[in-house]
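lol ok so funny story. i was supposed to be doing the assay writeup but got distracted and ended up predicting the structure for this chain instead. priorities right. anyway since i did it might as well share w the group, maybe its usefull for someone
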Amino acid sequence: QVQLVESGGGLVQTGDSLRLSCAASGRSFSNYAMGWFRQAPGKEREFVATTSWSSRTTYYANSVKGRFTISRDNAKNTVYLQMDSLKPEDTAVYYCAAGTAPIAGPQGYNYWGQGTQVTVSS
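and the output, tada:
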C-alpha cells in the first residue's frame, strides 16, 4: 500500500504560480511512476503530467506544456507540480497518483491522494 497526501493548493489570480506537493508513505516511493491529474466540477478527471521513477521520462498534457513542471525528490518521498502562468481554466481539484508506468491514462495508476483545490480567478 502507498498513501499519498497532496498540499499546496489555494486561491490565486491569473498569471500567478503555485507549487503542489505530494507526500508518499508506505511501499518504496522510488519504484513508482508518479502522475498528476485534475478534475473540474462537472468534468472528467484529466491527465496533467507524469514522471518515471528515475525522472528520465516525463509527459505533459498539451494544455499545460510550457507552464507546468513535474519533479520528484525520491529521498524525500515527494513529487511536485510547479504551476506557472496559471489560467482560470486550470481551476480544479488536483490529484497525485502512483502507478507502474508514466502514462496518461488514469487506469495505469494504483494509488491516489485525496486531492487539493486550485482556484484561479480571472
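DSSP finds no helices and eleven strands in the chain. The CA atoms of residues 6 and 21 lie 6 Å apart.
back to the writeup now i swear
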